[in-house]
Write a structure and sequence with these properties.
Belongs to the binding-protein-dependent transport system permease family. With 298 residues, this protein is mostly helical. The chain is built from 13 helices and no strands.
């Protein structure tokens, strides 16, 4: 006996209604993401300078060629790689050790966990201002006071070690994120497995190397992926503390694009930098997503 026509029409009507309800949101998201991308691509092939209206017209690949042959661009790429790599080493390495530490029972563990995680909730601009004016100021900073207290000469960290100082500030911000994720992963490890290893004579280092670290591998991969995507766009910390200097010593790719667009008013060159940044970010994201997927399949 055939089903009545209304029974076949109901799923189609439901799909049509769902599509009609989702269409406005999907359209807005597409316009929101595609229009800026298309405009950036368009301006990257144009001569467009905000303070020189006589400079206009099709530029071809000149903006890309000028940018790729600019030593500042190569330096910004190197600084971006150093910043991302350095922060990942500090945050993931320190986060793993602190996660294992905070998994142990000790007096004040709850307060210690809250204090360790709290920097993640401070806005990047505020963090940069605190470190620049309160902690690292060569005259009034806490570190300068500590160095004078032991007879040492205070150091102007942001002038002498700008990239390392920015890296330290960003690592301070992202270390709590790694602790939060890795501590959750450590707590999911079966305690009987660790107890059995201890009864078999495995010491703390052996238990960490052969039980805890393999268990954390998936969580570490996820932390590396998320942090890398965000670290490629670090801007506020550099703008507040060093403004990319001295020279271009602490300029990363994001700050170079900002500098080209709003300090040198070269919209065409900045757009070319934006397109290159999008390509690099997508290559890195594709590599990391594949690495995470491969790790999750194990």
């Amino acid at each position: 006996m055939n089903a009545p026509p209304a029974a076949h029409a109901t799923p189609k009507k439901a799909r049509s209604a769902g599509f009609a309800l989702l269409a406005p949101a999907v359209t807005i998201l597409l316009v929101w993401s595609i229009v800026p991308l298309v405009l950036t691509l368009w301006y990257s092939f144009r001569n467009y300078n905000l303070v020189d209206p006589t400079l206009h017209g099709f530029a071809g690949v000149n903006n890309y060629w000028y940018l790729l042959t600019d030593p500042d661009f190569l330096r910004s790429l190197l600084n971006t790689a150093i910043l991302v790599g350095g922060v990942l080493v500090v945050s993931v390495g320190g986060g793993t050790l602190l996660a294992v530490l905070y998994d142990q029972e000790f007096i004040g563990r709850g307060i210690a966990r809250v204090l360790a995680i709290s920097p993640f909730f401070v806005m990047p601009t505020v963090s940069a201002l605190v470190w620049k004016n309160l902690m690292l100021h060569p005259i009034y900073g806490v570190y300068s006071w500590m160095m004078r207290a032991v007879g040492l000469t205070p150091i102007d960290w942001l002038q002498r070690f700008p990239m390392a100082t920015v890296m330290m500030i960003v690592a301070w911000e992202w270390l709590p994120f790694a602790i939060l994720i890795l501590l959750t992963a450590v707590q999911s490890l079966d305690s009987e497995q660790k107890e059995a290893a201890r009864m078999d004579g495995a010491g703390p280092i052996a238990r960490f190397r052969y039980i805890i670290l393999p268990h954390l591998s998936r969580a570490i991969t996820v932390v590396v992926m998320i942090e890398t995507i965000y670290l490629l766009t670090i801007f506020a910390e550099i703008s507040v503390t060093t403004a990319g200097g001295p020279g271009v010593a602490s300029t990363n790719l994001a700050f170079l694009i900002y500098s080209r667009a709003l300090l040198q008013f070269d919209v065409g060159g900045a757009s070319a930098g934006g397109v290159i940044a999008i390509i690099i970010a997508n290559i890195v994201a594709a590599f990391l997503v594949r690495a995470v997927a491969r790790n999750l399949e194990v």
